[in-house]
Amino acid sequence: MEQSNSERPGLPSTIPSPLQSVGLVAGAVLLLVSAQILFQGLGAKLFFTAEQQAQITDPDTSLFLHHPLWIVMGTAIPELVLGSALVTLALRRHMPLEVVFPLRVPGVVTLIGALLVVLGLTPLADAVYTVAARLFGSDVGVEAPAMLKRSLAGAGLAQLVGVLFGFAIVPALVEESLFRGLVTAAHRRSFWAALFAPAVLFGLMHLEPAQAAGTMILGVAFGLARLFSGSLATAIFAHAAYNGVVIVATYLDPASADSTPTTATVVGGVLVAVVGVLLLPMGRVAEPRPPAPAERSSDE
Fold first, then answer.
1. Stretch (H or E) spanning 214
2. Among 162, 282, 160, 175, residue whose Cα is nearest residue 236
3. Residue 7, exposed/middle/buried by CB under 10 A (0-12, 13-18, 19+)?
């Protein structure tokens, strides 16, 4: 079996450096935007009438913003393109996959702890977003729930499953592989850097200031799940569960997407998250570490 570069004597690790991880996220954003533009362009030419093509740039009439199928596909396909690029990059650079993508499944108690951490910090993330939106005058908080509601309009069970796949499972797999996988591995020498650097970059990837602020809190939650459990699988599970709860809650009660957290729910949520952090290590899996580079001989 061919050894990875990090396992060959005298060769440096191929895991990205902290600075390279910033460039990696910037490249991921560029790829997502490019894939979205390409998807819309090809989709419009292949499946839209001339009249529908003329309406693409109008947010009030574009099918990409109003038709459930196109909304879901417009999220899932660019994410899948990014996921394929990440796997290709890791393989081509011979990264130790067990280090950048540690996917051993932890114990049930740890998974429960991850859910408590993420759902517990959700009211805080919502509150931070609300404050930031008032400061920056953001209207993304209005548009994002509206997009989700449109994707669930008249949804039966099959459509709900499709929305869960496109909005919950795919983004969780891809985004956690990037941030709690590659970026976390790049900052692995410091617990605090491995926790906060991916969270900050995760927020900044969303570009809009208010959304970035709230998303950073969720990034910290996913990071705690990843670091205390020793597994990327825990962060993927927590991210997918969070997205799934939001989707199902909106499906059952569309008004829930517009609710504003109270001080009591924020404080109560933080306490729940603390309990979750205490549970996380109980089913922790052993996290693999990259082999130390071989020392150079004295006569080199």
1. helix 209-229
2. 175
3. middle
Flag the least confident range among 2-11, 117-126, 172-181. Answer: 2-11
**For the segment 179-213, what is each residue's pLDDT rounded down to a tens digit?**
999 999 999 999 999 999 999 999 999 878 888 89
Is 222 part of a structural domain of the chain?
yes
Evaluate whether residue 7 is within a structural domain. Answer: no
Q: What's the chain's average pLDDT?
A: 86
Tell me the pLDDT band of 294, cut-offs 50, 70 and 90.
very low
7 within 8 A of 292, measured Cβ to Cβ: no
Give the Cα-Cα-Cα angle 24, 30, 31 (nearest 5 degrees): 85
**Distance of alpha carbon 10 from its chain centroid, rounded?**
35
What pLDDT is attached to residue 68? 85
Dihedral pair phi/psi, residue 288, rounded to 5°: -65, 150
Which of 31-35, 90-94, 198-202, 252-256 is predicted with the least confidence, judged by mean pLDDT? 252-256
SS3 state of residue 23: helix
Structure tokens belonging to residue 263: 């001080």
User: Do the domain assignments include residue 291?
Assistant: no
Structural domain boundaries enclosing 180: 12-283
What DSSP line would sit under 120-160, residue for residue? HHHHHHHHHHHHHHHHHT--HHHHHHHHHHHHTTT--HHHH
Number of folded domains that form the chain = 1
Burial of 245 from C-beta contacts in 10 A (0-12 / 13-18 / 19+): middle
Give the pTM. Answer: 0.88
CA distance 227 to 232: 8
Which structure tokens are listed for 49? 């009438």
pLDDT at 290: 60
Q: Are 175 and 239 in contact (CB under 8 A)?
A: yes
The token duo for 289 is 């570490």
Residue 208 within a domain:
yes
